[in-house]
TrEMBL record:
<dbReference type="InterPro" id="IPR002372">
    <property type="entry name" value="PQQ_rpt_dom"/>
</dbReference>
<protein>
    <recommendedName>
        <fullName>Pyrrolo-quinoline quinone repeat domain-containing protein</fullName>
    </recommendedName>
</protein>
<feature type="domain" description="Pyrrolo-quinoline quinone repeat">
    <location>
        <begin position="150"/>
        <end position="344"/>
    </location>
</feature>
<dbReference type="InterPro" id="IPR011047">
    <property type="entry name" value="Quinoprotein_ADH-like_sf"/>
</dbReference>
<dbReference type="Pfam" id="PF13360">
    <property type="entry name" value="PQQ_2"/>
</dbReference>
<dbReference type="InterPro" id="IPR015943">
    <property type="entry name" value="WD40/YVTN_repeat-like_dom_sf"/>
</dbReference>
Amino acid sequence: MMELVAKIKDVRHYGYLPEQQQLGVLKRNGKMILYDHRFSVILKEQVKNAYDFLFGANDKIIVAANDNTFLIQSHTDVHSSKYTIHSLKHNLSIPGDKSENNWYFLTNEEGNKGYVELNNNFEFRRFLPLPMGITGILMMVDNDTFISTGENEFGLFSLQDGSEIWRIDTVKLLGSDNPSIVWDIIPLNGKLYFYLYDHDKIDFKATFCIDAKTGNVLEKFDRFGGYLQLYQNKIYAPSWKTLSILDLATGKTETLEFNEVLKAANLNINGRRCVVQDEYLYFVDGAGRPKDRLAILNIATGQIIWECKIKTTDNAGKCIGKLHVYDGRIFAHASDDTLHIFDKEGSPKKNSLMSFFTGD
């Protein structure tokens, strides 16, 4: 079903824009390579000591280096591989957080800690000094408010004046002395979904739905939760040998058991490294610590339709650290900093973007 079409070594970070079929790869030595279905271009001297990057709107890329941040602008109207690179005023910490209209990045320059607000074109708007909220911005809810967290609390705060809108005590909410929250908060239609559990009390776990504006609890789904992900109006929580599903249209939950098929294949679902797309669950093996095997489970039939063991050169980790799936294309970043890219056999996409990887 899937075929390995590229293996890129020494990859520190990567990103992919499926709508443009553009892939960015940042090497450990700071060399950055950009690919799309028309061209590939290597940027080396301009972005020395780079450690992270992100794609933005309008063919713009933010690259963070040890002592500077760069903006890369593509000029597709001139030539597809023509770029301009210039240094930004503020040294930004990537990744940032995004609202509909703006980006927010932590910065620390000459002892001034805070957030830089940039618009969608990465143009400077304002500086927001710390403190903000409880411990800074965890995630933006909309253009005017953000979630901030503490040890056993989190709340909603105004971006305009920093005022508290609401705050939740997770001890009281879960009814347990030692609650932990999995910070995969899902914002949807003015609501926030999140999972709370207690390590010491197996019966104390639930996913909550709260009103984003007021913090009022709207629904509680007992014994449902994990590393939550949203796909087509359903929330999925994969874990070990099960897949729990919350149908947001009906409010009903169900748990699918795949014990026999996974046991026969000697596989476990790593809840932090899996993706639900269409009727498939793409996942990395490993109940706790991730391993070096990758598989696809057909959710409807309960069958493993493909699995692969990724060979790594490191002696310690030997695992898949990150997994992303875009329109059926799988990106698996291994612990030896090798990026493995799989595509569907016979896919026309394979001969476009992937043709530029030869010899890299």
